[in-house]
Amino acid sequence: xxxxxxxxxxxxxxxxxxxxxxxxxWDNVGTAHFYLHTSFSRPRSPGAITAGEDWEALPDxxxxxxxxxxxxxxxxxxVPRKTEQLLVQGSNKPVVSNLEENVRGYDWxxxxxxxxxxxxxxxxxxxxxxxxxxxxxxxxxxxxERSFDDIPNYELNHLIVDxxxxxxxxxxxxxxxxxxxxxMIVLSESLLDQGVPYRNPLDIPREHVHNTSTHLxxxxxxxxxxxxxxxxxxxxxxxxxxxxxxxxxxxxxxSAFRSKFELENEDFYRRFAIPMLKLYSNHxxxxxxxxxxxxxxxxxxFSDFIQYLLxxxxxxxxxxxxxWRQVYRLCHPCQIDYDFIGxxxxxxxxxxxxxxLLKVDRLLRFPPSYRNRTASSWEDNWFAKIPLAxxxxxxxxxxxxxxxxxxxxxxxxxxD
Length: 416
Prior knowledge:
It is found in: Golgi apparatus membrane. The chain is mainly α. The chain has helices at 2-29, 31-34, 58-68, 70-88, 99-104, 119-135, 177-188, 206-209, 221-225, 229-239, 249-261, 266-280, 290-295, 302-310, 312-317, 327-331, 347-357, 379-383, 388-404, 411-414; strands spanning 159-162, 167-170, 192-193, 196-197, 241-246, 340-343.
């Protein structure tokens, strides 16, 4: 009799312990926030490749945890309301204090004269194109066939997570990523200014925006959650709203070249410009500083840059820098089923629609676009002196980005 009672008592204690463990574990990893964000539905193709398809049993677990954590959720939901009240009070036209932002210049126009886009249909079309080519066995490119679990941890550092609103953003350099990172900082309240979270994205200095310690990324899950990392990634990929913004691949390359090699950038001069000038322009005894080099008229040409990209030695030494690395390598669109695909070419409309879908449009507005944004019409001039064979090789290098995201093949650059 005593043994039976002890057995029953042990079962009860173990059950209580497991429930407490689940509560603590799920609260730490942000499950409470799963119910705070707003997902928006969209058609799914039967062949869609989704990172979270192994977790179809999750709704039952979620239902149990929702009841278990109901009191905790009530407390958490009050925080965003306070935040919302604070952010709505912010200026509709943020004051630009950063010198670099002033130099770049902003377009504050409302673009009311533009034809309104049918955003819902646009998203359906973009996602359909992406899913079809991901499922098309005749269209191949490196890493396409691997699973999400096969992606190395260091390749997941472009996925920024906002647990407060249930959002995952894959940032692509040279595609308005500075301002989207600012938006993620405001939403997640991951950075304070004199003890108060930033309210206007443009108030956040660029050096803080690109500081890797500022953002919670998938790459950091390993240090924070250990062996549970992949499990948590899949749960959040299933539950959260995932988005990215892309750009015409060749125009993105031009933009990267302009910002990193036409402006004085000490780091890029030492890491990339010096090797390019030595390898492709036969320069020796180069200055050690970028200011000296520019003063002497020593600058990397666009032709040098293209040679560097096409040189097989480049990838053998190290993976492409993120500013010219292909989007499919940064964001893994065939392994992650993105809910929203924005484009820089329609940035203002796409950004406004996305913030509305996320139901955060009352909290902030997306910063205005630059007046001097690199234009697609510049491609002919930039590539005029690039040999045809190089242009064709370059297209093959970035073909997956053109095809997956619906950018037309630049036939005028690929023929005599």
